Protein 1
Amino acid sequence: MLLRQMEYLVALAHEQHFGRAALACHVTQPALSAGIRKLESELRVQIVQRGQRFAGFTAEGAEVLEWAQRMIAEQEQLHSTLSSMRGGLTGVLRIGAIPTALTAASLVTTPLHLRHPLVRFSLESMSSREIATRLNDFDIDIGMTYVDGDPLGRVRVVPLYRERYLFLTPADGEFGARESISWADAARAPLCLLTPVMQNRRILDGHFAEAGAQVEPVVETDTVSAIYSHLESMRLSSVIPHAWLHSFDIPPGARLLTMPQPRRSFHVGLVLAGKDPKSILARTLVDTVGELDIAGELDRGLARRLKPDF
C-alpha cells in the first residue's frame, strides 16, 4: 500500500471529480484511477462507487478515506517534527477563520512568526461549520471562530476574547452627537450588516430581538471590508464587534458609540481537531497564544479609540 495512493483518495474526496483530483496530484486521470483500483485490490474492498462520474465512496471506502487522511497528516507531522529537530520549526500552518475573526488573526499569527520565522501561514475565510468539517478531515490545522455558538463537534477549544459591540455612525448624522445608543435606536438607523447566513449576523439579530427590535439593513454583505466601504460611501451605520477596530479602525467622518452589552456574549477562540494526529504547528500556536493577553490587547485598543471622543 503506497502513501501516494492514499493521496489520490484524499484528493478525490476533496475535489469530488476524477479529473480535478488528478490535476491536484499532478498525474493523469488514468494514473489516478489505476492507483485507486490497485488500492482496492490490495485491501480487497470496493472504495469508490462505480459510475461514469465520481458518485461518492462506499461504506468501506469512507473508512479507508479516514485512515488515508490520518496517514497523510501523520506524515506531515513527521516532517514538521524532524524540521524542528534540525534547528527550526518550518512548514505551513493552515488556519480557517470566520470573517469576523480574520480582523484579529494577526494578533495570533504575528507572535508565532516572530518566534519561528520559517513558518508560513495559509489563512482562509470560512464558516464555523466548514471549519469543524475541515478540521476533522485534516484539511486545516486550526480554526478561529465562535466557540460557544454553532455546534463544533469534538474539538479542543482555546478561548481568546469575548466580543463587545459598538455602533459606527456618521459623525454629522442623527446619532452622531451621542456617546451611546440602545439596540432599539440602532435598529432605526439605515444599516449595513453581514448577511443572515453568517453567524455574527444571527447573533446580532438575536440581540436586536431581545430589545424588541427588528432590522432591515440597506446593505447586506459577506465581507467586513464591504461593510466599511459602504459606511463611508452611503453614509450608513453598523453594529460591529470591537475586534474589527484592530484592523479597520474608525472610518473618516464616522463616530464610535458604545452600546449596552447583551445578557449573553460570545467568545471567539481557537479550535483544534479532537482526534490525533495533532499538528505540531497548531500546538505551537496554542502555546504561544497562552502567553499573550489577546482580550486585553483588544480592550486597550478600544479604550484608545473611545478616549478622544468621550
Protein 2
Amino acid sequence: MVPVVPSPLDLNLLRTFLAVYRSGSFTAAAQLLGLTQPTVTTQMRALEGQLGRELFARLPRGVAPNPVADALAARVTAPLDALAAATGNGTGNGTDGERADPVHLAGPAELLCTRALPALAPLVADGVRLRVAVGLTDVLLDELRAGRHDLVIATSRPRGRTLTAAPLMDEEFVLVAAPAWAERVTGRLAAEGPAALHDVPLVTYAEDLPIARRYWRHVFGRRLDCQAAVTVPDLRGVLAAVTAGAGFTVLPRYLCLDELGSGALLALHTPDESPINTGYLVQRPGSSDNPHVARVHDHLLQAGRAW
C-alpha cells in the first residue's frame, strides 16, 4: 500500500531513502552519498517517523525493503532521477546525450573471460563501458551490497532479501584427464570405482577441493579423501595443467568444451546424472539510474540461455 504522506517530505530524506533502497544497506548508501552511517540511520528514522511506517527490515547484512518502501520508491525514483539530471547531481546516467557511467561487473574470472565478456562485446561496440572485477562469490556479494559493483555473477544464490538474483546458467561438471592418463584408468574406473584414481595426481583450484568433493559425493556417493598435487586459483590454469598431462580434475563442461571436442581431454566417467551448479546474475534492489546497467543485465540473461 502506498503510504499516506501528511505533509511534504524533505528532499534530502528522499534522496537518502533512494540510496538505501538501491544499495541495500545504510553503510553502502552512506558511501554513495558521502555521509556517515549514523547520519543515514538518523535520516531514515526521521523519514519513517514522518510516514508513520517502517520502510526496511534490518538484516544481519544490510536491510531489505518492505512493501511500503517499494511503493514509495515507485513514486519518487523517476522525479528524483530527473531532478538529479537537471541539476547535474546525477551519477552520469547518459541522459541528454551525456556519456553513461561504466557498468561495474564482477564474477568468477573463468566465466567472465570465456562467456560474459565475449557476449558483451556488441554492447561495448555500441558505447557501453565496462569495469570488470574478479573474485570469490561471497566477497563479491558483500562488495555489491556496499555499492562497489552494479552486477555480480555468483556461483550461489545470495541469502536474504538485500539482493535480487536471476538464474543465469547451469554448470555441468565433468571428470577429465589427458589421453595418456585416461587410457590407464578408464577401464579400472569402471571396475574399481574412484579408487582407480588414487595414484593419479589431482589438480584443483583450492586446497579444500570444493568441485571435486562435490562430484565425489554426487556421483560416487562417498567422500573424496586425497590431497591435491597442484592447486591453481584459476580454473583456466587447472585446465592448462591437466591438458598438458599433470593429472585429473573436475571442470565445468563449458570451460573444456574445445578440449573435449578435439580429444586433448577425455571424460573419465559418464554418470547417469552429472552434478549441476546454477549461476546467478545478482544486483541490488531497485532500478539503477545508469541505463547501461539494465542493458548489460538483460543481455547477459539472454546470452546465458545459450550457455
Protein 3
Amino acid sequence: MHPMVKPALRRAWRNLQYVQFGTTPAHAVVLGPVDTTTGSLLGLFDGTRGLGLLREEARALGLPEGRMEALVARLAEAGLLDDAAAGDPAADALRKEDGALDRLRADLASLSVVHREPGGAIRRLAARRSMRVQVRGAGRVGASIAALLSASGVGRVEVLDGDRVEPWDVAPGGLPAQAVGERRDAAARRLVSRAAPAGRAPRTVPRAGRPAGSEPGLSLVVVAPRDGLSAYAPDPLTADDWVATGTPHLYAGVIEATGVVGPLVLPGGTACARCLDLERVDRDPAWPRMLAQWRSGRRSRVPACDLGLATAAAGLAAAHALAFLDGELPTSTGTRWETSLPLLDWRAQRIAPHPDCACGAAGRGEGERTSEAGAEQDTMAG
C-alpha cells in the first residue's frame, strides 16, 4: 500500500490543531486534533512511499511507535485515504493503456471524492471498461450522451438510430457539422470512437468467469429518442424485452421546451414504462386517446430541441448512467426529473410501481436489483 491523502480534496487548517479536507458540505471532513509533528507526517502521505518507508519517516520525526499506523487508520475511517498502488487486473490494464489514464485523471479524482475506501476510485474507473451500454437515439441528446459515456471510460458504447444526420442534429459535444447527410449510426460510431480516452474504443476486459472474446451483456440501455414524446411517454411494448431480460434502462430527451431524465428502470424492482402508462390513465382517462393522436398524427419535420436544454438533459442523464454503472442508485431510480424553459427549475416526480402491471415491481422492494449487471456492481461496491 502507498497511502495518499486524497489530493482532490482541498485542505485548510481551521486552527493549529484541526485541518479540514474538502470545501463543500457534501464531502468536507475535519480531522483533529493533529499536532505539528503529526501534521508533518501527514504531508508525506502523497502516494510515493510505502508503509515501510512511512514508518521510517515517522521514527525520524520522533513520533512514538504505532503513530503512523494509527494515522493511516484514522484517515481511512474518515474516507480521506487513497492507495496509489491499488488495483486489480482491470486497473493494471487501464494504467498500461497508452494515454487513457491521463485523459481520465479528472474523473478518477472525482471518483476518489465520492467513494471512501482506498483504491475504490481506480477500481470503479477500470470496471467501466468491461461494460456495454446501448444508446437508442442519435439526436442532440442521444449523441451527446453516447460521447460522454465513451469519454468517461465506458468500454463499449453502441448507438442505434436510423436515417441520416440533419443540420439540426448538430451539437457541440455531439454530432459534428461535417456529419450532415451521413447515416446517423455510422456518424455516432465515429463520435464515440473519437471521444474514447485513448482516441479509440477501449479494449473490453473480460469479467471473471466470461471467456475472452465473448459478447458482454448489456449493463444499461439509455433511451434518448429524437422524438421526445418517446422519452416523455415511453412505449411499454418497446420496453417489454428489457423488462423480461432484466436489463436496466434509463429514459432521457427533450419534448417541446421540457427536458426529461428518468426514470431509471430496474426491472422487477422499480416502476417500468407500463407502470407509468397505467398511472397516467388513472389520473387522466383521456390520456390514451391523446397519446394515440400524438403518436399517429402529423409531426413537425424539425422537433423543438433547445441546444442548452438538450445539453443539460444529456449531461444529467450521462451522470446518472455513470453513477449506476459505478454501483450506485442515482435519484432517477424510479423517478423522473423534468425541467422547462425558461426558468429551468428541475422537478422530481416519483413513479410508484403499478399494482396492475405484470412487471412485478409492485410486489417487491423498490430499488432491488434483479439484473446480472446490477448484482455484479453491488459486489464491486461492497
Protein 4
Amino acid sequence: MIDLNKLSTEENNPNSKDIELQDSFEIIRRINEEDKKVAFCVEKELKSISRLIDAILSNYTKDTRIIYIGAGTSGRLGILDASECPPTYGVSHEKVQGIIAGGNEAIFRAKENAEDSRELGKEDLININLTKNDAVIGLAASGRTPYVMGAIEYANSIGAVTGSITCSKNSDLSGISQYPVEVIVGPEIVTGSTRMKAGTAQKMILNMISTAIMIKIGKVFSGYMVDVKTSNQKLVERAKRIIMKTTDSDYEKTAKVLEEASNDVKSAIAMILLNIDKKTATEKLEKYDNNVARLIHEYSDKT
C-alpha cells in the first residue's frame, strides 16, 4: 500500500480553495502566483545541481552518455531535453538520451502502469548497453517511482554516475542516488498534478544540466553555439555571424577565413583570434579536445 499522505507532491494547496467557482482570470492568476515560486525553489538547490554536473564532468570521456530516465511527465521532460541537444550543440543523438517507462508509445499516450516495475527500469538500461562511463539521472516528482528506482539501482551496481531530480522531501529515490536534487515546490494548484510546478522545476533543472555540460565540453564560446554545422547556405551565414560576433571581424575577412577553415567555425575563430593558420588551429584544437573556449583563454594567457 502506498501512503500518499507522506508525499509532498500530494498535499492540497490552500490557494485552490473554491477554485472551481472562480472565473478564468482568477484561475490563471492563482496558477501564475504558484509558478512564480518555482525559480526560487530551484535556487535553493543550485549547489546540489552543480554537484551532479561536476560529478558527470569529472567522469566524462568521449564515450560518456547522459541518460534521463522517468515515467509519465518526468519521462517526457527528459526526452524533450535530450532531443534538443543534437540540433543545438551538434552532438550525436546517443550523447544525451531520454528513456520513458512504457517505451516510445508512452511519449504520446499515458501508460500509467508502466512505472510500477523495478525490473523494467533495469532492463531498459541494459538494452542500451549502459556502462560505468555513463551518467543516469532519474526523474520522478514523487521520488518513489519503482521503474526509476530499479534503473538507478542498476546504474549504481555497474559504477555509473547516478543522480535524481525529485520534488518530494527525503524521497526513496534521493536515498539511493549518488547526487540527488530535491526541489520542494509545494502543493500543486490541482492536487497531485505534478505536470505543473514540479514539471516546471524539472524542466528548469534539465536545462541547467545539459547547458552547463555542453558549455564545459566546448560547445559554447562567449555565449554562441560554435558547433553549428554548415550544411546549407543559411547555416553558413549563421556561422559567419557567430565568427563576426566572437572575433569582431568584418564580413569579408570572416568569409575568407571560414573558407580557409573548410567551413569549420571553431578553426576559423582560432585562426582569427590567435592569428594562426588552419593547420596550426587544427593541431591546437586537437590538443584541447576541440574545446575552442579553453584554447582561446588558456593559449592567450600563455602568450
